[in-house]
Specification:
The chain is mainly alpha-helical. Helix content is about 70%, strand content about 10%. A two-stranded antiparallel ribbon has the order 1-2. A hairpin with a 2-residue loop joins strand 1 and strand 2. About 15% of the residues are buried.
């Protein structure tokens, strides 16, 4: 249960950081409310990606696998496959959110937390 609480708090923290960035970028509140589903999905995927990345870092991207005795081969670990699929979806949803921002946005980096700066970096990459 403690792990779930930690995960939930990390997701909530990510949601707050995203909303803060959107407000700093002068996105109107009605658009922020309309984007609530995107914000929740991005926050969930971000935390999931962090957890999957930690798993891959600890256990590797591949594993030995056998369906027949005596025959083993290296295969991509399920955590790596899920990470690869999720990162593609994360980037696509992030781009949808970023496309909501007005073109005449001021520099939002001023006074941003480290997490907000990391999210801003991801948003800038998605825009390219």
């Amino acid at each position: 249960m403690e792990e779930s609480t930690d995960r939930d708090s990390r997701i909530e923290k990510s949601e707050k950081a995203l909303k803060s960035i959107l407000r700093k970028r002068k996105l109107p509140n009605e658009k922020i409310r309309a984007a609530e589903g995107l914000i929740k999905r991005i926050a969930f995927m971000q935390v999931s990606l962090e957890d999957l990345e930690a798993d891959v870092n600890e256990n590797g991207a591949t594993e030995m696998f056998s369906q027949t005795e005596g025959i083993e081969y290296a295969r991509e670990r399920p955590a790596m496959a899920i990470f690869n699929r999720t990162i593609k979806n994360y980037a696509a949803v992030f781009k949808q959110l970023f496309d909501l921002l007005p073109d005449d946005k001021p520099a939002a980096d001023a006074g941003a937390s480290e997490e907000e700066k990391a999210l801003l970096g991801m948003m800038k990459k998605a825009r390219r």
